[in-house]
Fold this protein.
Amino acid sequence: MSQEKKNGTTSQDASATGLGRRRFLNTAAAAGLAGVGMAACTDKQAGGSSASGAASGSASAASAHTEANAGAEAAMHPKPGELDTYYGLWSGGHTGDVRVLGMPSGREIHRIPCFVPDALVGWGITNESKAVMGTKADGSLRYTIGDTHHVHASYKDGNYDGRYAWVNDKINGRLARMRLDYFVCDKITELPNIQGFHGIFPDKADPVDPKINYTTRVFCGAEFSIPLPNNGKDADKPEAYHSLFTCVDAESMDVRWQVLIDGNCDLVATSYDGKLAATNQYNTEMGVHYEDMMSAERDACCFFNVARIEEAVKAGKFKTYGDSKVPVVDGTKAANTDPKTALTAYVSVPKNPHGVNASPDGKYFICAGKLSPTTTTIELTKVLDWFDGKLAKLDDAIVAEVEVGLGPLHTAFDGRGNAYTTLFLDSQIVKWNIDKAIAFHKGDKNAKYVVDRLDVQYQPGHLNASQSETKAADGKWLVTGCKFSKDRFLPVGPLHPENEQIIDISGEKMVLMADHPVRGEPHDFVIFKRDLLKPKQVYSLDDSPLAVKDAKDCAVIRNGKKVTVKLTSQAPALGMREFKLKKGDEVTLILTNLDKVEDLTHGIAIPKYNIQFIVNPLETKSVSFVADKPGVFWMYCTNFCHALHLEMRSRMIVEA
Ligand code: RUQ
Ligand code: CUA
Ligand code: CA
C-alpha cells in the first residue's frame, strides 16, 4: 500500500506480515476515505514530524501467547466460582444501554438500561423509571431510543471513587447518570441548544478549591452544529450554526453553563488538576456538507479555562437562547484573542482529529489524528502558561506530533510512559513511548518511539487499558473494540457481532489473548479494579416513600375512579391473593418486595395489560394504568424466586 510505504511507519511489507486479508480491508477502507481528503503521510506534514526511519515496530503474531502468558491466561479464564479482578463499564451504542463486564474474562454480568426501555427490569414501564427517562404530557415516554458512546466514572484523588458513572445519548442529546452502588440509572438530563452530544468527561478536581479533589462537573461536547435558536428559520445561513460545550453539575445533574465555540466538539478530556477541559474538533471549517468538513489541513483541540468560564458566568457575561435559561458564554476565537482573559484556546491539530486522552501522569492530552497518521501530544502546563501570557505561541504547547500509522482514533496508557493508539485503517494497535516521541519531535531522529504493533481483527475504534485514565494506570490489560469481526465467529446472517479483543500488555510486546463477540455496538468503556466498588446487596425500605412496609398493609384504596393498590411480595406469595377493580379505574399499583436476601428478586406481570417489572429485595416500584379490559387477569411473578415461584400469583379481577 502506497500510503504505508510513504509514511514509513510500517517497515514490513505485506509478505512479511502474511496478513493479506488485513491489507485488503485496509485498501477498501482507505479507498473509502481517499476521495474525502485523507492526508497522505508525507514528511512535509504541516507542523508534524516524520517518523521515517524511526519506527521499527513489528506486528506481533496473534499466536504469540505462550508459557510466558500463563498467568494472564489463567486470569482470563477464571475457574468455576472464581471472580474477576476488574469491572468493566461498556457503552452499548444504539441499544441505548450500558453493560457491566467482569474483566479480564470479558463475561457480561449485567446491563444497565438508561435511555431505552428494558423488558427484563421493566425500565420504561414503572413510574419510577419513567420519571427518570422523561415523559410527555400524556405520561408516555418522551423518547424510546438512545445511542450510548462514552462511559466515564466519577473520580477522587485521580482514581475512580465508585459513586457514579455517566453515559451520553448522541441521538437526543442526553446525559445519564448511573449510581454504582445499585448499578441503576438515576437521572437523565437533556442538554439544551445542542445536537449530536458525543464526547463526555467528568472533571477530576475543582479548578480553584483544592479541597474538592473529586468530580463535581461533567463536560459534554456537541458534535453537530445547529442554527441558534434552532427554530427552522436559519437552515440556510451557515453563520447561524454553532456548537456548544456544556457543563453539567455532577450531583444535581442540572446544566450549569455552556460555551459557544467556533468549530464542533468531538471527544472530551479533563486535566487532573481540574483547571482544563478540552474537546477535539474535526469540523473547524464549520461545513454543513460532508466534503466541507475535510478541507482544512489542521483542525483543533479546543481548551476551556474552567475557572475563568465560571467567573464570567458569575459576572453575568453570558446570554441565553430560546426557552433555555442556561448561561452561554462566548468562547469563539474572535472574543478570546487576549490570552490573559481568554476563556478558550484553540491548539491546532492535524486534519479531523478524533480521540483526546489524558495521560495518567497528568502532563499531556494526546489527540489522535484520524485523517492524519499522527498523534499530537499537548503539554498542559504550557497551555496554562499561554493563559497566563507566558507562552507566546499557543501551538508551542505541542511537544510531539509523530506518525503512528493510518487512522489513529483513541489512545490508552499503561502507566509506564507508553501510549497505545488504535489504527482504524491499519487494523492495528500501535504502542509508542511518549518521552521518545517528544525527543523525536525535538529533533532526535534516533529516538525509536514505536515500541510494538499488534494486528487486531478488524478496524478497531476505541480501546482502553485497565485503570488507563486514572493516576493508577496499571498496565495489565488492554481491550479494543473492533468494529468488524468478519470471519472471527460463526456466521449469523449479514450482520456480524463486533469483536472485543483482550490483550495482555504487561510485557514489552502486546499479546492478543481472546476474541469476544459482542452485540452491537459498544463504543467506549472503562476497566477498573473491583475493590473500587462496594455495591449494595439489598435496598432499604426507606428508599421509596411509597414502600408498603408490611404485608398487613396490602389494600385497595379507592378515591372515586382513582385506585391505589398496595401490594407486597415475599417468597412464595404475594400479599393479596386477589383484588377487585372496576372497568375504567385509574390504577396505581405499588409493589414492595419484603424479602431481605440478596438476589431474591420478584417480578410481576399483568397479562394483556403489557406490564412487567421486577422488584429487588426491599425495593418498591409502582406502575399506573387504566383498567380498561374487564376480566380475570392472573398477575404472576416473572422472576424465578422460589420452589413455588409458579404458584406466586394473584387474581386481578376487573368488573365490567
Ligand atoms: S467515538 S471510534 Cu463515538 Cu467514541 Cu471513537
Ligand atoms: Cu416471586 Cu418468582
Ligand atoms: Ca476538518
Q: What stands out?
A: The chain has a mean pLDDT of 91. DSSP finds eight helices and 41 strands in the chain.
